[in-house]
Amino acid sequence: MIDETSPALKVALAHHRAWTAKDLDLAMSYLADAFVCDAPAGRLGSRDAYREFLTPFSRMLISSTLIAGFGDQEQALIMYDTTTPLVASGPGAECLTVRDGLITYSRFLFDRLPFEQARQARA
């Protein structure tokens, strides 16, 4: 279920659509100057660090399917599945804080196991 009446969810979905369409300039325009992301690999303390983190994955992304999205005035939670050359299914989720129409914080989680198994199989 996706209720796009939530202001935070609208921003979260616009950001998601931009980076999954490989338009990282547009995706970055939804992030506040003081953006911070906590990801499985650690804290990304700036927009530039986040872009550096996201760019390789965005480039290899084949598709992304939105599973669910929920939000209110300042928080949104989206869950999606991704397909890449490495894995047919790489689920992820983001809990985003939005203030003044920009994402200030992302708690990003994804299932690392399919990627690790694919890397081991290739080795």
From TrEMBL:
SUPFAM superfamilies reported for this sequence: NTF2-like (SSF54427)
Ranges annotated as spanning the membrane: none
Name assigned to this protein: SnoaL-like domain-containing protein
Protein source organism: Actinoplanes friuliensis DSM 7358
Pfam families in UniProt: SnoaL_2
Positions of the SnoaL-like domain: 14-105
